Structure formats: structure tokens, C-alpha cells
Amino acid sequence: MNINEIRQQFPILDQQVYGKPLVYFDNAATTQKPLCVIERERDYYLHENCNIHRGVHYLSQKATEAYEHARQTVADFIHASEAREVVFTRGTTESLNLLATTFETHSMRLYNEPKVLITAMEHHSNLVPWQQMVQRHNGQLLVVPMDDKGVLDLEQYEKLLQEQPQIVSIAHISNVLGTINPVKQMVKMAHEYGIPVVIDGAQSIAHHPIDVQDLDCDFFVFSGHKMYAPMGIGGLFGKAEWLEKLPPYQFGGEMVDTVSFEKTTFNVLPYKFEAGTPNVGAALGLETAIQFLQSLDRKAVEEHETQLLQSAVQQLSEIEGICFIGEAEHRSGLVSFIIDGIHPYDLGTIIDKMGVAVRTGHHCAEPVMTRFGIPGTVRASFALYNTLEEVDVFVKAVKKAAMMLR
Question: Contact at 8 Å (CB) between 385 and 228?
């Protein structure tokens, strides 16, 4: 990897904040966008902009072809067996709401007190939709516990599977702890009980190759903006056999086949889940982001990001009173910590004045904070354009801030 060449694709990084060179370590919230992605979306609006599908004129056909090509690119990227198994959404949150809503209509009303199984480390997006859905039916949200290092208890997972939840929905990588969960093993265990599995891939897809056929998951959801693509675009993979069963999520144009005042029939996959005018430009930006990632050596990217994480942890360990939140053996992408006697918000505010962007708070995972008995953490999250020199600057900023606040 030539980091200097890569960084030239990200002009936003070449600026100063408060008179300091920007160090952007908030990649778990959103990654920056390379020029190729920005230019592709701009080019669409300059030369191809049109509502897609059903139009017979040149621009409509050109835009439709580009949009469906982007769908195929996503399918190939995650190794879906066919493009119709990929539904474009606004991102992980909408994908999970789609699943919770359609599963409620399809399955949950058939059960007395339905159950959904999640883990103790879920983002609110993979907790609240399921919680609200089971509560509407006097059901139960089952939660896999984790230990003090942020590792799931698979023995308890097995016991909870024996309670026969209707669906399992689990994070691939925790956005707070960085824990890489053994999702392939967890899918296999759930399938032994005939239970479908959703994988929240929001934090994994930018860092690790994804093969949904190898994972054998029933659903996989992700957001484009966390993998160098525009905001407002993401995807839902679902095995065709499942997507065929589930009802539409929203109603309107494009997702219908025939409409009369007496009856409406619905479109084929994946269109029955894509009501209304889609974000075509962002979908093309997502395709370009995938092509950007594919132009790199993914193994080298993983190794580089691992180096960043290891360097950060090693140097931060020297700070008196530091406590890492999440110390699993297998983790990726980020480090979360607190320093004894210092509020995370205060620490993050001072670090920001030194030009370093980190995230503070509960990171939309409030139950994780409750589990560890803390108000929040400071989270530094890494991307392929970050450097070891930036890690050094970050650690020095944390040390200086800690000294000032004590």
C-alpha cells in the first residue's frame, strides 16, 4: 500500500483544524469519501440524471442500466448468488427496520409471545426495532451476555437458542468494543435449530472481505457511508427464499406489478422492497467505492489497520489510569477507552482542539455502557488512509489532555 497515493484521493484530510493538521479517527461513525466516489456522483447528475425503470427514453435507460449494474457490483462484492438478493436501502438502520417490520407481518403474529435473540453489544439500530416489535406482541428480547473483555458467551447463546426465538440478529463487529464475533459459527448453531440469522455488517464491510454464501447468513445489512461511499445508501442481502416470503416494507410506485381499486399485486425481487424513487447517484457512488476497495490489496489493508490498532493500544497503555473497554483477542478497527477521573466528553473536547477527531459518548450502544458501568468512552476508529504518524499525534494529544484535566 502506498498511503501517500491513497490519501491524495481524500482531499478533506489535507486541511488544518484549529491550526493543526487534521487527524481523522472517527471512521466508525463515517468514513471520508475518495475523489472517485465524489466525481462519480457528480457525473451522474451532470450527464445521466433521470428517474429509473419503465422510462423508454435514452436518459432513463442509461440511468437504469447504471443502477442495476451497481446492484450486480454489490452482489459480487459480498458474494451473493444473484443480484436479486440485494435490496438498496438508506443504510443499516433502514435495512434492520425493514426486516423487523416485515418479519412482524410475516411471522410474529403467528406466535404467542414471540422471541428475538440479539447480543449485549448491539448498536441501537439492531436493538430498538426488534425490541419495539416483540413488545407489540407481548414477546421477549433475548440477549446473549458478554464477559468483561467484550467476548460473547457462546454457551449462553446455545441455551438461548433452545428457547426457539423466531430470528437471531447479531453484530459482526461491535462499534464500541471492536470485538469480531464468530458469526459463521453462530449462524451454524442457529441453523441447527432452524432459526434464521441477520448479520449487522455496518462495522465489518470496510475492513474485511464478506462472503455471505460462506457465512451462510440469511440476511446481511450494511451502510455505504462507513465504507467510503455517500451517505443515504446501503444494502440488505437476503437469501431469495426468504425475500420471496416477506411482504413489502413500503407501498407506492415501482414496488407494484398491477394496481386497481380492488386489488394490488407486487413486483418481483428485489423491487417489491424498493418503493419510490431511489437514490441513484448514491448507489453509483457505492459501486465506485466498492471498485476503489477492490483496486487495493485487501489483505494489505487489513494488516495496515491492524498495525494502527496495535500501535494505538500499545502507546495508550502507558497512560496512568487508562481502562480499555473491549479487550477481545479478535478485534478490529477501533479502540475505546476511559481515563480514571476524566469524563470522556472533556477528554474528547480537548483532543479536538489539538486537531484530532474522535467520538465520545455511548456510541448508540447505551446498554454496553450500562454493562460496564460507565457514562461513555472515547473511541478512536481507523481507516485505510490513516497513518502510524497520526497514531503518534493522537496519543500525544490524549496524554496532554489527561495531564490538563487532572
Answer: no
